[in-house]
Each structure stands twice: as structure tokens, then as C-alpha cells.
Amino acid sequence: MSLGSVLQTALTGLAAAEAVLDVTANNLANWRTAGFKAGRAAFATQTPQTQSLGAAPSGGNGGTNPIQIGSGVELAQASADFSQGQIALDPDPASLALQGDGLFILEGPQGGRLYTRNGQFQLNADHELIASGGQRVMGFGVDENFQLGTGQLRPLRIPLGNQVAGAGGSTATCLGFEITSGGRIRGRFSDGVLRDLGQIRVARFANPSGLQARGDNVYAEAPNSGLPVESDPGEAGAAEVTPGAVELSNTDVGQSLVDLQQASIQFRANLETLRITDRLFEELLSMRRTG
Fold first, then answer.
1. Is the torsion defined by CA of 255, 27, 41, 276 positive or negative?
2. Closest by CA position to 75, among listed 156, 129, 21, 137
3. What does the alpha-carbon distance between residue 175 and residue 162 come to, in Å, rounded to a whole number?
4. Contact 177/184 with Cβ under 8 angstroms?
């Protein structure tokens, strides 16, 4: 061991404290972000410096333990905590909250898939259901006879104000819509008939914490997330939809403030180690100059 290695060890402690501060600051910044999943940092010890592996008892020797001196800490992972956030009412009928395991499916770049827990949806100029970042919400659509198709996913449309052939050969106008806990979208028409407009689908992952965050509160499939398993909401243990509601951030403000204090203590303690080591270096250099 040397004073140089002590400096390196203390620097790893500073880096660990900074990582906690970064993660916690982001959690607090997104305290009011709908569907936000708080991050958490986990750490591991770095490979120690081994001076001796020790020895087993033999003869007159009672045995010795290994001599290993730690070399600091390293960030093992910084991933999202997908525990359930609180559900709050929202006046927009297009706003949806998920209660349970699963994510909404969005249309990603070049036809790919993205996923989110933020159900603050709205309708665009083409009557398509879109996420707050502009991505289209995916599900099963209907044909011209309002028969639900269960083939490939496609962007969901809610044709408010559009006219269709109604009962008795008349025309009927889509006046509004409702969404069930199972994700079925039904249009209310002027002839008093409820017609299917689409079916929201959700995706589940074996390890949602392994998803890759992409900004806009969306995630993408990643090597350790597992493959998406798609289903209707409420089917086979998947999350159910709560219409007219939104899932709030799951940031625990109280715990975050505690984490900030602990990271601050860790930072100051390792900074003091650096200062003491620096003073010892100065003493050594002074002894060398006077010697």
C-alpha cells in the first residue's frame, strides 16, 4: 500500500457519493413527472490488493487469515425502480393509469417499439391517441364495420366528430368515448350505440429494471430486460387500466432527502481522507528536502 493508493481509494468514495447525488437529484427533479420511475444506485467493492492468501493450520502453526486491503468502491448498477406509483384522477378521458405490472406500447422510430408508464395521452389532428412526447399509442384497431382485429399492432384512432352509417340506414356521429379497465376503447355515437374503436395492449418484461431509458419518460427493450410479453390489460396478471386517471411518480421524497444527507456525509468523509493524505505527502516532501 502507498499514499497514492489511499488517494485513489478516497476518489472512488467521492465518485460513489456523486453518483448517489446525481440519481437522487434526478428523482427529486421528476417528483411531479407522471409515470416516472425513480432510479436507484447500487455499489460493489473493487478488487482488493492481496498481500497474502493466508495459510491453513499445520504442525505448530495455527493458520493465518488472508491479508487483503480494499481499493475502494464502484458503481454496480443505476436502474429504475418499477414499483407502483400512486393513482390520481385526471379530467381528460384520454388519460390512463396502469395498476399493476406492464407498460403501454408506443410506436418508436422506424416502426420499432417503445414503452411507458406515463398515460397522459391526448388526440392529435388525425384523431390518433398519442403520448406526451408525440409517440403514437399502439393496440388492435377495428375495420370499417367496427370489428376488432387481433393481428399486428397499429396506432389507435378515436374518430371524434366523424360520421358513420348508423342504425336504420341513418348517419351517426361519434360524440365521445370511454375506455374500460381491460383497455377496450368504445365510441359513443349519436344513435345511442356504443361501437368498438380499438383495444389497448400492454407489454410486460421479466426484468423491467433492465429496460433502457430513452428520455420523454419512455423505455426501450435492452439485453437484460427480457423480451416483451404482450397482452390485454388485466389478462394473465397484466396491469389493469384506470381511465380518467394518471400514475404519479414513485419518488419517495422523504427517503430521497435521507439519501442526500448520507451522500453528503460520505462525500465529506472521503474528502477529509484526501486532505489528510495530502498533508502526509507534504510532510514526506518536507522531510526529503530537509534530509
1. negative
2. 21
3. 8
4. no
Classify residue 160 by burial, with Cβ atoms within 10 Å: 0-12, 13-18, 19+: middle
C-beta atoms surrounding 205 within 10 Å: 22
Whether 13 and 273 have beta carbons less than 8 Å apart is answered as yes
227-238 per-position pLDDT tens digit: 999 999 999 899
- Chain-centroid distance, C-alpha 83: 9
- Say yes or no to pLDDT of 167 above 90: no
Q: What is the DSSP string of 135-187?
A: PBBEEE-B-TT-PBP-SS-EE-B--TT-EEE-GGG-EEEEEEEEE-TT-EEEE
pLDDT at 127: 95
Non-local (6+) Cβ contacts of 75 within 8 A are 15, 16, 19, 41, 42, 43
> What would the mean pLDDT of 88-106 be, rounded to a whole number?
96
Query: Grid coordinates 476518489 are at which residue?
Result: 11
Q: Where are the domains of the chain?
A: 3-49+68-82+252-290, 87-245
pLDDT for the residue 243 = 96
